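Sample intake sheet
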Amino acid sequence: MTAYLGSTYQQAHFVNICLISSRCSVLSMGTVTTNGSTFTTQATCSHGLYYNMDIGLLEGLIFFIGLIIAITIHEFSHAFVADHFGDPTPRSYGRVTLNPLAHLDPLGTLMLFFVHFGWGKPVPIDPYNLSKREEIYVALAGPFSNLLLAVLSAIVIRFIPLPIFYIFIQTNVVLAVFNLIPLPPLDGSKILLNLLPEEHSLRWQQAFDQYGVIILALALFLPFQGSNLISFILTPAVKFVLKTIL
């Protein structure tokens, strides 16, 4: 989703970590602004979507720490690549940093601990400072960084086979795959819009502004094959990536 704010826009990201145990469901939530209106979307990942794990307090804490790291790297990567291509906006907002406090939304982070859903602070960029190709790289940077973290963790786990690394790998893979779905406010929508010719891009942008969040919400909420459409789409992709790197 593209949220216009003056001459800049914010690429929002859902946190959709489907590490499911018998004790908790992780929800995804994002808030985006379009034409002065604010929409909130939320979804529950079904139990046992990828793995069934009984995680204790320590493992749960490790999971949340890993999630914070994944969100921080994801948002930093967007900011770093935009800054690399000459857009000063992320740096002016203090986002070209690995300090989690710069990237974590306070309320979204608290929600992770208390109600098991949350969101990161979107990175502001100015599209007038970037070419279409550069915008694609900026959008890809977040998911790519999470895949890179997953691959590096998969290498480490061959020498240090601790369960916490499996949790961290899955967290990053799900975050990456989910954000590549071409629906706003996910990174995939920005990639799609910049791949299309200008005329079609504007048409799709208008459609996304009107219906994108609604479509994503329906895909997340409406029951489908015992879960929801997003879970149905994500599961094979996530399993494929995990099988490839592990």
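Comment: Confidence is low (pLDDT under 50) at residues 1-54. The two ends are 32 Å apart (CA to CA).
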